[in-house]
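Worked example

This section walks through a single chain of length 338. The input is the sequence exactly as stored; nothing has been trimmed or padded.
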Amino acid sequence: MSDNLWGSGSQTDQDEKKPADLRQDLGSNSKEWRLIEKMVNGLSVEHRRSRRWGIFFKSLTFMYLFAALYFIVDSSWTKQISSSKPHTALVDISGAIAADTEANADSIAQSLRAAFEDENTRGVILRINSPGGSPVQSGYVYDEVKRLRQLYPEIKLYSVIADIGASGGYYIAAAADEIYADKASLVGSIGVISSSFGFVGVLEKLGVERRLVTAGEHKAFLDPFTPLKQSEQEFWKGVLNTTHLQFIEQVKKGRGDRLSSSAKLFSGLIWTGEQALELGLIDGLGSTGYVAREVIGEEHIVNFTRSLSPWEKLAERMGVTFAKTISTQLGLNAPALR
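Given that input, the structure is written out below as tokens.
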């Protein structure tokens, strides 16, 4: 296209001309203008079409993501599907037993209630793979097992210890009608522990002054930056001894005269499955499948374990991990059955 197509005048004048002026200069019927107009209209149509497809694909992507998330959540919430035929109900306890873990009393109790309430349940297996944890959470589950056994006397509950059923894990197992384990499982550890660190000497070496204000003479007796008095240590040991006696009492209630008279039984030691059988801590050697098939007599197993939803798992991962770590290291947690 020649230079005079745009008319005469300075560059500034040309830049300031509007489309209407250009059309007037070119003439409404000129071939050049019709070509430009066609190109502009074509670009406009193509742009609108591109935007529509962009919106469509973005919407499709979001719909796919929401659908996928829905099915993940839904499958987690509806995992506990009952069987329409007779079965052995299974409830898992895995990992540390604490209020802020997956093995918390509320979740375990909900799973147990669902297992017992199912009309096709012929027996319940509590499969335990836990080193222990909170005596409070363990006690809640123990009491719930006893309550459910009274409500459903025809449905027996069996504990099966996998790799380890120690401390709080064994506390819960003791509530069962019978306990089974593998010959190499670790069983027992009937004791209570509370551990922490003291940083008094470190502060002195660093020249750091600890400033602590309390209302109550012994309010800060577990503070790691303050020397632990002998009287306070004896007091705390008394608290642990009381918890230990509670633990022993519940084990005796659950196991009765099946327990041996060994003085080491409640010392906090841990034994293999074979040793535990001799001590009366368990009733036999066997797996979950064995108990379902040979003891309960119903090989078909339905897992009633309540799983955390994706939202709960996300909240747990993004929770107060740092605070939990610090409190554990400084010994600010409650006593644990270990």
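What to look for: The first helix runs from residue 11 to 16.
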